[in-house]
Amino acid sequence: MSPPQPTATSPRFFVLNGPNLNLLGTREPSVYGHDDLAALDARCHACAERLGMTVECRQSNHEGVLVDWIHEAGRRAAGLVLNAAAYTHTSVALRDALAAVDLPAIEVHLSNIHAREPFRHRSMIAPCTIGTIAGFGPLGYELALTALVERLQATAGAPPAGAPSPRSPSHPNPSDG
Ligand code: CA2
C-alpha cells in the first residue's frame, strides 16, 4: 500500500535545533558527522513526507528565540523534535517553555551525550519530554518523527486524561448484562 500523502490538514511537527548546529558539516565531523544543517533538514522533510506529515525545521543560536518557537509549536504543531544543543544542559527557560505547552516533545542529540564529558550527561529538558534519542546522528531525527506519529496515533482514539474507563463500575459494559 502506498504511504499517506501529506495534505493541508496533515499533522505538522516542528524540528528545532539550538546553538552552533548551523555549523554542522564544517567542523568536528568525528563527533557530529559530515552532513550540514540543510542536509539534516532535507532528511527530516523526506521522512515527514513518507509518514504523511509536514514538518517545519528551524535553528537558532538564541535561547529566547527557541522559547518563542516552543510556544508557537504549542499553538501550531502536533509535536516537537528538539535538539537544544548546549542549552539542553543549562536552560531552565527551555524546560519551563516545554512544561508550559501541552505538546509531545522528543529530545534528540546527534552524539551520545552519555559517552561524553560529565556536564553533558545531565539534561534540564528531559523531564518535560516523552523521551530522548542520542547517538544515532541524523537518523535520530527520523526515529523521533516516527515515534511522534506513533504517539499521535495511539492517543487519537484514547479518552481524555482522567476520563473513566469504559469498563469501570460507573460505566458498565452493556454486553456484561
Ligand atoms: O550531540 C548533539 O546533538 C548535541 O546536542 C550537540 C551540542 C552539544 O552541546 C550537546 O551536548 C550535544 C553542540 C552542537 C555544536 O554543533 C557543532 C557542529 C559543528 C561544529 C561545531 C559545533
TrEMBL record:
<comment type="similarity">
    <text>Belongs to the type-II 3-dehydroquinase family.</text>
</comment>
<protein>
    <recommendedName>
        <fullName>3-dehydroquinate dehydratase</fullName>
        <ecNumber>4.2.1.10</ecNumber>
    </recommendedName>
</protein>
<dbReference type="GO" id="GO:0009073">
    <property type="term" value="P:aromatic amino acid family biosynthetic process"/>
</dbReference>
<feature type="binding site">
    <location>
        <position position="89"/>
    </location>
    <ligand>
        <name>substrate</name>
    </ligand>
</feature>
<comment type="subunit">
    <text>Homododecamer.</text>
</comment>
<dbReference type="Pfam" id="PF01220">
    <property type="entry name" value="DHquinase_II"/>
</dbReference>
<dbReference type="InterPro" id="IPR036441">
    <property type="entry name" value="DHquinase_II_sf"/>
</dbReference>
<feature type="active site" description="Proton acceptor">
    <location>
        <position position="32"/>
    </location>
</feature>
<feature type="binding site">
    <location>
        <position position="96"/>
    </location>
    <ligand>
        <name>substrate</name>
    </ligand>
</feature>
<comment type="function">
    <text>Catalyzes a trans-dehydration via an enolate intermediate.</text>
</comment>
<feature type="binding site">
    <location>
        <position position="120"/>
    </location>
    <ligand>
        <name>substrate</name>
    </ligand>
</feature>
<feature type="binding site">
    <location>
        <position position="83"/>
    </location>
    <ligand>
        <name>substrate</name>
    </ligand>
</feature>
<feature type="compositionally biased region" description="Pro residues">
    <location>
        <begin position="161"/>
        <end position="177"/>
    </location>
</feature>
<feature type="binding site">
    <location>
        <begin position="110"/>
        <end position="111"/>
    </location>
    <ligand>
        <name>substrate</name>
    </ligand>
</feature>
<dbReference type="InterPro" id="IPR018509">
    <property type="entry name" value="DHquinase_II_CS"/>
</dbReference>
<feature type="active site" description="Proton donor">
    <location>
        <position position="109"/>
    </location>
</feature>
<feature type="region of interest" description="Disordered">
    <location>
        <begin position="156"/>
        <end position="177"/>
    </location>
</feature>
<dbReference type="GO" id="GO:0008652">
    <property type="term" value="P:amino acid biosynthetic process"/>
</dbReference>
<dbReference type="InterPro" id="IPR001874">
    <property type="entry name" value="DHquinase_II"/>
</dbReference>
<feature type="site" description="Transition state stabilizer">
    <location>
        <position position="27"/>
    </location>
</feature>
<dbReference type="GO" id="GO:0019631">
    <property type="term" value="P:quinate catabolic process"/>
</dbReference>
<dbReference type="GO" id="GO:0009423">
    <property type="term" value="P:chorismate biosynthetic process"/>
</dbReference>
<comment type="pathway">
    <text>Metabolic intermediate biosynthesis; chorismate biosynthesis; chorismate from D-erythrose 4-phosphate and phosphoenolpyruvate: step 3/7.</text>
</comment>
<keyword id="KW-0028">Amino-acid biosynthesis</keyword>
<dbReference type="GO" id="GO:0003855">
    <property type="term" value="F:3-dehydroquinate dehydratase activity"/>
</dbReference>
<keyword id="KW-0456">Lyase</keyword>
<keyword id="KW-0057">Aromatic amino acid biosynthesis</keyword>
